[in-house]
């Protein structure tokens, strides 16, 4: 079975590792996790994962190397591994705002680099992950798709859309959470206890999302089924729209995309 090294075992790195094991693609012994302090990986070592604090050594035998680190840690890590990564490996970067070209500038133009943008729902195997590359062959991209399908859904996009993907999918988690929070607050105002209102809002949001996923229908088609003439649903929807609901959501996504584009350069 192929080996994988995950550099930077924070929330995303560990969630990916656990998802890969759960899916049956890998066993723990196939996966090497690295951190600056190996003491922080004792639990994972006991669970059967390989652990290391030496990035240069950890990448040697891997078929796939995942860089799951912060933008400000990237250059240091790339300098550490540039002499040990080789042309047959797939380097998967989960680093926001950093292009394939940025990475190849340090580790060599001949290397295979694929970018991936998961979101925090990776922790429960429900990520929406976008992947992109500049020059990697379809067979290699398929391997990266398989990796992230173990922890959610995957879409392959053009690399120039990666900052947009960050706004819609990674930041987007927060936007939908805030919408659910607002719905629960509305529930309290019309008479429910906070914990009941939150449970009702969460399940209703989940039902709406699953309805679209399973039927593949357009949201407006499902909305039409709930809105009767002179009814309470259309009254509520129109009140929200008069107060800029859709417009505010769209503007927020656009601004997040602008900010995401400048992360690495800052």
UniProtKB/TrEMBL annotation:
Protein's UniProt keywords contain Metal-binding: no
Keyword Cytoplasm: yes
Enzyme Commission code(s) on record: 1.5.1.2
Gene3D superfamilies: NAD(P)-binding Rossmann-like Domain (3.40.50.720), ProC C-terminal domain-like (1.10.3730.10)
UniProt binding sites for NADP(+): 68-71
Keywords carried by this UniProt record: Amino-acid biosynthesis, Cytoplasm, NADP, Oxidoreductase, Proline biosynthesis
SUPFAM superfamilies assigned: 6-phosphogluconate dehydrogenase C-terminal domain-like (SSF48179), NAD(P)-binding Rossmann-fold domains (SSF51735)
Residue ranges of domain Pyrroline-5-carboxylate reductase dimerisation in the record: 159-260
GO BP, sorted A to Z: L-proline biosynthetic process
Location in or out of the cell: Cytoplasm
Enzyme class: oxidoreductase
One GO location term (cellular component): cytoplasm
Predominant subcellular localization, coarse grouping: cytoplasm
Record field: catalytic activity: L-proline + NAD(+) = (S)-1-pyrroline-5-carboxylate + NADH + 2 H(+); L-proline + NADP(+) = (S)-1-pyrroline-5-carboxylate + NADPH + 2 H(+)
Domain Pyrroline-5-carboxylate reductase catalytic N-terminal: 3-96
GO terms assigned for molecular function: pyrroline-5-carboxylate reductase activity
Superkingdom, taxonomy of origin: Bacteria
A Pfam family reported for this protein in Swiss-Prot or TrEMBL: F420_oxidored
Pathways per UniProt: Amino-acid biosynthesis; L-proline biosynthesis; L-proline from L-glutamate 5-semialdehyde: step 1/1
Annotated NADPH binding sites: 55
Protein family membership: Belongs to the pyrroline-5-carboxylate reductase family.
Purpose: Catalyzes the reduction of 1-pyrroline-5-carboxylate (PCA) to L-proline.
UniProt xrefs under HAMAP family: P5C_reductase
Protein name per the record: Pyrroline-5-carboxylate reductase
Organism of origin: Sphingobacterium gobiense
